[in-house]
Amino acid sequence: MSKRKILIVDDEPDLVETLKFRLEHEGYETITAINGWEALGAVRAQEPDLVLLDVMLPKENGYRVSKMIKEDIATGRLPKAIPVFLLTARNLSSDPGRESEFRNFSQADDVIYKPFEMEELIAQIAALWA
Q1: In 3D, which of 118, 78, 127 has the Cα closest to residue 110?
Q2: Which residues face 88 on adjacent strands?
Q3: Domains and CATH numbers, the chain
Q4: Which of 51, 69, 90, 129 has a 20 to 30 Å separation from 63 between CA atoms?
């Protein structure tokens, strides 16, 4: 079986490198992008198995990129479903109504709040394919 491919999208180089190192150590293939348009291009060209997508990005924010990915899946532009985990420092978990609105707008599959524990993130990713 080929390795699962994960697209890491964040404009913080240190976080990208940390995630890349750790995910590759876990046996995943990684690709990276640093802005919204680059992320959308990478999704369309390389069809990753998962997108870890920061919300606050240059050129296009993560909410819109997530929504565009989901629209591409719905219209058949992308041939498979690709889960999107949004990464955000804006913690809405204490406000279930706002968190639900956030998820519905972005159509993201999950929301990961920064700072996060790497082990928890790895477990959430592994659970996708368990």
Answers
A1: 127
A2: 113
A3: 5-128 (3.40.50.2300)
A4: 129
